[in-house]
Amino acid sequence: MANHSCLSTASLAFAIASLFSAPSIADSIALTNINIIDVESLTINKAQHVLIEDDRIVSIKSRKPRYKKHVRVIDMSDKYLIPGYIDTHVHHATVPDGSDNDITTRKRLRHLLQGGVTSVRDMGGDVRALSSLKRRAEIDAIQSPDIYYSVIIGGEEFFADPRTVASALGREPGKVDWMRAVDENSDFDTIMLRALGTGATGIKIYAKVPANVVEMLASAAKKHGLKVWSHAYIGPAKPQEIVNAGVETISHAPDISAHVVDNFYELRRKGELITDKQLQDSQQLSRYEGLMQDMLSKDTILDSTLTVFEQTKAQRGARGEMLENWGYEFTKLAHMNGITIATGTDSASDYFGHTTPLVFNEMQLLVHEASLSPLEAIQAATINGAKVIGIEQDYGSIAVGKKANLVVLNQDPSDNIHFASDIAHVIKNGEFVYRGSNPKLPFVDAKKAGGMLWMSGQLGNYPTTMTLAGDDIKSQMTQAMKNIGNVLEQHDLGYQDIVKCTLMLEDIDQWQAANEAYTPFFDSYPTRSAFGKADLALGAKVEVECIAEL
């Protein structure tokens, strides 16, 4: 029996090569009669017609155009279209040889994408692992949101934190390009250039950095095209100093209390409680007016991360409840002051037993605890997240010319934020995303038995739809094989693991044309049978059934 305790580098490389040696088909897909949620104006445009070509939105019409013959038209009546969700605070490579190993991480990333999250901002980890994941996600070699990550900047003292050891394994934390200790005498230009060399999108200022150094870091980062991100409290610099130093996004709403609480480092990092007077002082919201005004004037974005404080409050005791309440109060205060809020979760669903991405929990908390409307919460999870990362020109809203990273909802979420997770379809880079077995069908896509993965037959339909990828057998065969690949990936397998395929052709005379689309997916062919079979489901020209070795 094959050993798949981990997917070898060679196997993965082969699987990617197989996928991208397949014929490239420029799909044109029209989503008709769909209701578009405009996340910038917070309005709904009813019964629109959206044309996607390759990975871009090329037209949005209020009247249905006469589409060319090659366009695949999909009726989306009573559905709602939103941009793909963005989680602005995740951690996927803190311990890449342990809890964040490649197989576990790819499973988490699949879960995010299948749940509608099409982009994430990773806030500190081993870029040697992140850069590999980023590349594979970008070219759709793995099912994953697009990944944008940071390098960590801190004072020398911070790099005694044991978490930095795992992320810099084999090197010395604080002295590597993705975890750099700084002071006012550091060569900031060189630090930023080396950060760019890691593939990072921005810097994350973590802890033990004074305000004058934050200003130097922010200036150098912007000079070299890097985003400037930070915790709301990094000590000794306080929130207002961080904002005025030029940080573009601050994370963790409870940390805003450091504007008033003097010994905040002891509270946050050492687990010590503050005095009753300090607690009372921290709750005097008028004391935060200057900070809020500065955040608004400088367009500082708040990455609240309410979820992680809600989910961990029990283990933190009284301190946990205080941090949770601070998060709600300061996010609400920021929203009242017109400050842009983004949805970061700072965790993963499997940590807390959630079956959907935590971004939905974050949106629900924004609505129920911080007084955002449902559409404002969706705005926080789309265009605001794009602004955090600096990708709003291409992502985060629905407009002609933007990337087709989209989510189709079954119900109108404007009155009920819980409908934001009622997903019909996910589209990334213009392609429908496989989301697992369809519970409405009387079978599953695959079963494990006897050391083998037995797969149901796959048609050439776009995942989660009943629409065939084309009228010709080559288009349908290519899509059927992609569908097979999706099922294999769900089980950490690749095309190289297939041992037998059966091809059912509507017309056996199209056997040669079917072969031309089938063979590029393999380096070493599996065994195969083929036969003619009329009246395939959906009027398809081909159905493919395969068996793989586990």
Report what the structure shows:
The protein has 550 residues and is an alpha/beta fold. 33% of the residues lie in helices and 22% in strands. The protein has 18 helices and 24 strands. The strands form three sheets. Strands 6, 7, 8, 9, 10, 11, 12, 13, 14 and 15 form a ten-stranded mixed beta sheet that branches. Strand 9 (175-176) and strand 10 form a beta hairpin. The longest helix has 19 residues, at 318-336. Residues 1-25 have low confidence and may be disordered.
Overall mean pLDDT score?
93
Q: Would you tell me the structural class of the helices and strands?
A: alpha/beta
Q: Distance between the terminal alpha carbons, to the nearest Å?
A: 7 Å
| Radius of gyration (Å) | 25 Å
Q: What share of the residues lie within helices?
A: 25-40%
Shape: globular
Number of helices: 18
Give the strand content.
Answer: 15-25%
Précis, in short:
The chain contains 18 helices and 24 strands. Helix 14 packs across helix 15.
Characteristics of this structure?
single chain; 550 residues; alpha/beta; 10-stranded mixed β-sheet; 8-stranded mixed β-sheet; 18 helices; 24 strands; disordered N terminus
